[in-house]
Amino acid sequence: MKGFSIAILLLICQAQLIAQTNFIVAGNTYFGSTGDVHITSINTHLLNQGQVKMSAGAVHLSGDKELMIGGVGSTQFFNLSLSNTKKSYYLENDLKVESILEMRNGAFDLDNFNLYLGEAEGRITGETETAYITATGQGEIVKPVMLTNPNELDAGNLGLTLSANHDFGYTEIRRGHDRQQLPAGESIGRYYYMVPESFPDTEVTVGVDFLLREWYGPADQQFQIWTKDTNFWEALSIQNEKYNPGSHYSLSSTANNQFIWVTVGAEEPFEETLDEVPTAFTPNGDGKNDTFVIPWIYKYPTAIVMIFNRWGDKIYTTNDYANNAWDGTFKGKVLTPNSFYYTVSFPDKNKGSLKGNISIVK
Predict the structure, then answer these.
(1) Which of 269, 303, 322 is the last residue of a domain?
(2) CA R_g for the chain
(3) Residue 126, exposed/middle/buried by CB under 10 A (0-12, 13-18, 19+)?
């Protein structure tokens, strides 16, 4: 064809390439590998105007400057390792990593492009508070996976763990980095969007690992997992919570409803407050103010109310407080005037708990 030519570079054996300036694949050029080829690039942009498809080997990129990966051509690496001690790597086109993307140091900003992980082996390793993937635009990490009776499966090591007794089937999981608007305010800078072939009819245990750097609120915030189908966000009660300093914050919950979105945010705000709850009562048998009254407790028939003495010993508990308000007794005897504290938990409302003080007076 007149005026058109194609250059082909195919590496099929062991090879080591070291780029000291820019590593550029020119237009109309196919760069491929089927053997154990390693490319090492230090403080260079990796720019592709042709086609790059590596079916084996690895690309190791390191530096301390803002560096670009991609270009107008299609790019597929088998393994990719990124380390930037001062700045970030920026994606300039969609990128596919067939096997392992290793984050060793610094940030990898997807901007408005997508990072695709291979269905069979594609996964991310090494994400920490100082080595992480983010997106200043709408870029997402995309992982296709067959979810067959998943048991604590973190597909692609994206930070979303699923457990269920039934199949999801072929599922595409997307991890984005926008903050979502929740009833309790904005979420962390991470969300998940799932496109399952089908959704289990039974409950699903959901786990989320995230970085505290993705949270923009108070440092002492209590978190909840939030899910939604296509309409409304719903908060889930936390079952397990763990913080690994310098690495991940882990939460897990059980969802009884179908969902396609998952994120983490602040605890759901209470509709009720302690303002209406008295701070003292007089259990003297005169028929007036003889019990500790919580005015709005009737709205929450399954709420659990517990009373503790000042040493932390539990002296009263009930899950039917509207009909069994505390009368100031312990083991059948009226307690002497003193200060106590109480908790009101809302297990069926996914609200966590309220805490306050109550005193017995003469």
Answers:
(1) 269
(2) 28
(3) middle
- Interacting residues of 74 by C-beta distance below 8 A, sequence separation 6+: 48, 51, 52, 53, 93, 94
In this structure, the answer to whether residues 81 and 184 fall within a common structural domain is no
Does residue 169 share a domain with residue 237? yes
For the stretch 101-154, pLDDT in tens is: 999 999 999 999 999 999 999 999 999 999 999 999 999 999 999 998 888 889
Helix (H, G, I), strand (E, B) or coil at 97: strand
Residue 74, token pair as written in the block: 């299609």
The number of C-alpha atoms within 13 Å of 204 and in the hemisphere containing its C-beta is 24
CA dist 76 and 46 (Å) reads 12
Q: Which of 39-53, 92-106, 195-209, 324-338 has the lowest mean pLDDT?
A: 39-53
Phi first, then psi: give them for residue 348, nearest 5 degrees.
Answer: -90, -10
Question: Residue 349: which of 182, 184, 224, 237 has the closest Cα?
Answer: 237
Asked if the structure places residue 274 within a domain, the reply is no
What is the model's pTM?
Answer: 0.72
Choose among 291, 269, 294, 274: nearest CA to 282. Answer: 291
Q: Which amino acid is at 128?
A: T
Within 10 Å of residue 285's Cβ, how many Cβ atoms? 9
Bin 215: left if φ > 0, else alpha if -120 < ψ < 50, else beta.
Answer: beta
CA 103 to chain centre: 18
